Here is the input.
Amino acid sequence: MSEQREVEAANRAFYQAFETLDIKEMEKVWLRAPHIKCVHPGWPLLVGWGPIMASWERIFDNTFSMRFTLKNVQVEASGALGWVVLIEELDSQGYDG
Here is the structure.
């Protein structure tokens, strides 16, 4: 599989875990390392496996459904580094409406 295809597959796995609100699948797409970082909209910077997985659990526990439409997806890969730039449209529903 080409580097670009691997990045595309990882991106698909991330959004699949996100849309299904499946914490076990989300755990598979994150590196178990103390240096990983995540920023959710409106949240402070999270660093490390524990805080990041706790944030996903909190999001998933308070969400009834989540659907993404991804536009202008641009995938790049260079050696061991890959990244995706896109526009994300989100339709989300919490348990309170």
Q: What stands out?
A: The longest strand covers residues 63-78. Residues 46 and 83 are 19 Å apart (CA to CA). The mean pLDDT is 94. Strands lie at 37-38, 46-47, 63-78, 81-94.
